[in-house]
Amino acid sequence: MRSVRARAALGATVVVAVALIGAGLAVLLVLRANLTDQAGLQAEVAAREVAGQLALDVPVDRLDLPDEEEHPVQVTDEDGRLVAVSKDLKAITGTATGRVTPHTSVAPTSTGTDDDSDDDDGGDRHGGENRGDDDATGNIPARGEVSTDDPDFTNGTATVDGDTADYRFASVSATTGAGVTLTVHAGAPLATEQKAVGSVRGAMLIGLPVMLLIVAAVTWLMTRRALRPVEGIRAEMAAITASEDLSRRVPEPGSRDEIARLARTTNETLTALEASVDRQRRFVADASHELRSPIASLRTQLEVGAAHPDLLDVPGAVTDTVRLQALAADLLLLARLDAGERPGNTRLDMGALVHEEVSQRTGDRIPVTVSVSPSEPLEVTGSRGQLARIIGNLLDNAERHAESSVAVSVRTERGSVVVAVSDDGAGVPEPECERIFERFVRLDDARSRDEGGAGLGLAIARDVARRHQGTLTVTRSPEGGARFELRLPARPDPGR
């Protein structure tokens, strides 16, 4: 199932189905329990009415029994023998006995002088007047009383006039004035409970599928409506891919939900991708242009030398070759940086690295002054070659624009190692402070000079600084020229 709408509709339907089934079962159980308790209460009332008659010494053959269809009744003695039963009761289950015919050997319980003589002779096997003392232990009511304890409830069936039905039976004990304890089993029909539960169950069986269909349909429609902007985004992205026109943008819905944020993020990605592609195209065009000049010059000199060996300008050919080699090295380094090459993890002392780079520049037209803080740790972590490339590019730029002085300082400042390269040249106009770090960008005054590179030095320096989690910025120096500051995270001193 690959459709999000189908999966959402199915998931919502399954969740609702589980919830409804669980709720339905709980409702059925609670309803059945309540109705069963009501039937038990009716059975208890009927049993206590009969037990009250027995406590008042009404003979068992003269008991006023309730309607047998509503409340079938059995009366048993202490030995479980049936002594009285509803008139039309033909069969019964779930009580103390399944008999429906009283025992003929059991004499009807009555009151008279014989009871008194029995008491005098000690014939009361339940203790006579002391019966109440046994109430706490044997749960036997005193003479002339009905048990106040909760009755015992059971479920069973009874057949009255040929009709068999389910009943809830309650058992209540009573003691006659003669000291005989009898138990009354009275039932209440469960037909109401069964009918109500069946009606609710039938309604649930009919309503549940209908409700699930409604949930599935509503979820499908709502999901379809919610995902409609996604389909628009997908279609536009497919069109952009087919046309390769990165200037197009996906439609942004007016809502403020996740889909709107997705559309905005997609457009931001397209904007960044368009800028990257344009930058790459400009890079390729500028690289081709910069490579064309030294290659054309070198070819011309070689062709002239081939035709007229005495006219071959060897120093010029070497200069063009060196320039071509440097440009190729810059382009290769930029390609590696764009590919995400990570810097090394070498521990470096920036003060020593600056001294080393300056000492190797013997042919500079302007001497370089170096100032290194002697009492501060100046160690960083990174690639020695790439960091040396930054310092070399900054010194080349300063030599190109300085009038009489170039200064380099190395210090620490708030957890960073700062390398500053200053000159006393014309400086960088404030609007151009960020533009000079773009690739193949040379200001007009630099282009007017015959010397200078292709405009890649500062771009390479900033890219390398960013790869080392640092920054490279330009401001105006105290001497009036440009001041480039390289900030790199200082390596923690393991001794501290």
End-to-end gap: 61 Å
Range of strand content: 15-25%
Helix-strand pattern: HEEEHHEEEHHHEHEEHEEHHEE
Specify the helix fraction band.
Answer: 40-55%
User: Which residue ranges are poorly predicted, with pLDDT under 50 across at least 5 consecutive positions?
Assistant: 110-138, 446-450
Count up the domains. 3
**What is the 3D form?**
rod-shaped
Largest β sheet strand count, sense and barrel closure: 6 strands, antiparallel
**Main sheet: which strands, in order across?**
2-1-6-5-4-3
Number of helices: 10
Q: Provide mean pLDDT, rounded.
A: 83
Radius of gyration: 53 Å
Quickly give the structural class. alpha+beta
DSSP E strands, number = 13
Describe the structure.
The chain is of the alpha+beta class. It folds into three domains: 4-196; 258-338, Helix Hairpins (Orthogonal Bundle); 346-489, Histidine kinase-like ATPase, C-terminal domain (Heat Shock Protein 90, 2-Layer Sandwich). The chain contains ten helices and 13 strands. The protein has helices spanning 4-55, 113-120, 135-138, 191-243, 258-307, 314-338, 350-359, 384-401, 444-447, 457-467; strands at residues 73-76, 82-85, 89-92, 152-160, 163-175, 181-189, 346-349, 368-372, 379-382, 406-413, 416-423, 471-476, 482-489. The chain has a six-stranded antiparallel sheet. A five-stranded mixed sheet has the order 8-10-11-13-12. Strand 12 (471-476) and strand 13 form a beta hairpin. Helix 5 packs antiparallel against helix 6 (314-338), helix 6 runs parallel beside helix 10 (457-467) and helix 8 packs antiparallel against helix 10. The protein is rod-shaped, with a radius of gyration of 53 Å.
